[in-house]
Amino acid sequence: MAKKTKQSRNSTVNALEDLGKNILSQIKKGKNPEIAIPIRALSNIEFDEKSKMVSLGNKVSARYFFHIAHAKKFLQTVEVAAVSHNLLREDKHASLRDVFYMIKRTIPGTKANIVDEQSESDSVIEDLELITDHSREQLNINANKNGSVAGKVIIEDKGDTIDWSKLGSGGWSIPSNVEEIKFKKVTAQYVLYMEKAAVWERLHEDKFWEKQKCIIMSSQGQTTRGIRRLLQRLSSEYKLPIYVLCDNDPWGAYIYSVIKYGSINLAHISGKMAIPSVRYLGITCDDIEKYKLEKHGIKLKDTDLARIKQISEYTWFKDNKAWQKQFKMMKQSKIKLEIQALSSRGISFISNVYLPEKIKNKEFID
To answer: Domain 148-360: which CATH class?
Structure first.
């Protein structure tokens, strides 16, 4: 593992140095320095029917130093590359917020800052992944921890042995980078991922993972890269089915879509993130009537309806009859339903009835 890590680090260092050498070479030749970057937008997204994953197309944009619209972004790219290079050389890691502050300063001779908001440096880091063909984690840049997991799993992380079944009420906090985690023992029949931490806490308190012989995992809203990668590793390395539990609204459908097919913004790393075999467990529009939850729905806003229209037209959804039925039912009912609405049937209804029934009867949407 140590040898593999060192080789990966050297490969990333070389990629960053190649970027610097290429810019320097252009300067020596008297050219306007440019950096070629694949376009990260829906217009450059392709969906592979065979692999069931989204990927980036061949459209590329050039970022020039001597260009009024590009100069600042060009400088940001070089600055972030330098920060990553130093981190790798020192064998240290930095958070996204750390990187923002490490490059936030005024450009000499001007009143302009290299970056004003973290969103600027975050975007450049994703560009750098494309430029170097190395992930953010390989660039030694990590996001904040935002997820919990519990189950009968024993791992080794940085030399420490950790049992996911013996970490109290909080479970194991999922890090941004899970590449070096070694699974020592996995005893589970499937993985249940949910978008809400509060729902995970309910299932954990009810010991759902122990009773159902599964792994429960959550984030808080959109799934982090660390969680997606951990889910994919459990799916590919242990052939565990992955079930997704989200709110019954277009945003829940999108979370499922990202886990299954990959995201538009990170299409360049779908191969390490997407899980085509994942299945959607709930909440569905059918559940509203089945479990008599009509009075617990929340009225859809115009933004929700617009989002339903947008998502329903995604290539990977538009020919899916089951999902088109869900989108149609959402629009007709004009309500959305949160997972916690199941608590109206009893605090542990989700653990004792809803989930066991749906899993036993294989009530999934693919």
So the answer is: alpha beta
Give CA–CA dist 188/231, Å, rounded: 13
Classify residue 67 as exposed, middle or buried by CB count within 10 Å of its CB (0-12, 13-18, 19+).
Answer: middle
Report how far residue 342's alpha carbon sits from residue 196's, in angstroms, rounded to the nearest whole number.
14
C-alpha span between 190 and 206 (Å, rounded): 17
Active-site option among 64, 101, 190, 193: 101
Calculate the alpha carbon distances from 4 to 138, 159, 251, 256 in Å.
12, 16, 38, 32
For 41-68, the DSSP string reads SGGGEEEETTTTEEEE-S-EEEEESS-T
pLDDT per position as a tens digit, 37-83: 888 877 888 887 788 888 878 888 899 999 988 999 999 999 999 99
Looking at the domain that runs over 2-142, which CATH code has it been given?
1.10.10.10
- Given a contact cutoff of 8 angstroms between Cβ atoms, the answer to whether 135 and 272 are in contact is yes
Question: Please, are residues 100 and 118 in contact by the beta-carbon 8 Å criterion?
Answer: yes
pLDDT in tens, 86-120: 999 998 888 899 999 999 999 888 888 999 999 99
- Residue 261 is a catalytic residue: no
Give dist(CA 259, CA 342) in Å, integer: 24
pTM exceeding 0.70: yes
